[in-house]
Amino acid sequence: MSALAEAIIAAFDSNAEITWATAGMDQAIARFDVINARVEVTFTVTGPKEWRVGFDVTSHTSVPESIRILSGVFQAVHEFLEIRQPERLVFAAKAESMGQIYETYLAKKDTALRELNYRAIPPTKASPFVEFTIVKTAPSVWRD
User: Fold this and answer.
1) Where along the chain do its domains lie?
2) Potential cystine with 100: which of 5, 36, 44, 81 (Cβ 3.0-4.6 Å)?
3) Nearest to 6 by CA among 104, 74, 91
4) Dihedral angle at the C-alpha atoms of 86, 126, 91, 95, nearest 10 degrees?
5) Radius of gyration of the chain from Cα atoms?
6) Residue 131: strand pairing partners
């Protein structure tokens, strides 16, 4: 586990002011700002009750700002899990460092995920990506 991954997870408690939007029933978008950066976290349906999460940042940022951005992304993930309650949520990482951050996040937030009735399953390698998946362990109350 890298020092960067540990630092990001340690700073996880985000209080970003998130604005939510939808693009139909198949996409939800969380937006927030960190200093001079606009962040969009996109949740997209990829199959029955399965979603993929990704994020985009509109400007280059420093390491402290990057930590705040990732903390906001994880805050959006938590809010999405609470509301939409997908059966599966997949994070994909091409860069090894991003994969370490996802893996560290999932390990550190195991208790919080379990409280939301989720658990992480072992990562899957689909070259050039590594996918990190959390699955719902109890029925969802979300209705389309």
Assistant:
1) 3-136
2) 5
3) 104
4) 180
5) 14
6) 92, 124
For residue 10, CA distances in Å to 82, 113, 126 come to: 21, 16, 29
Q: Are 102 and 132 in contact (CB under 8 A)?
A: yes
Per-residue pLDDT in tens (0 to 9) along the chain, 144 residues: 566 556 555 555 668 899 999 988 899 999 999 888 899 999 999 998 899 999 888 876 666 577 788 888 888 999 999 999 999 999 887 777 777 777 887 887 778 888 899 988 888 887 788 888 999 998 877 666
- DSSP β-bridge partners for residue 47: 50
The sign of the dihedral angle between the CA atoms of 115, 116, 122, 123 is negative
Q: How many residues would you count in the chain?
A: 144
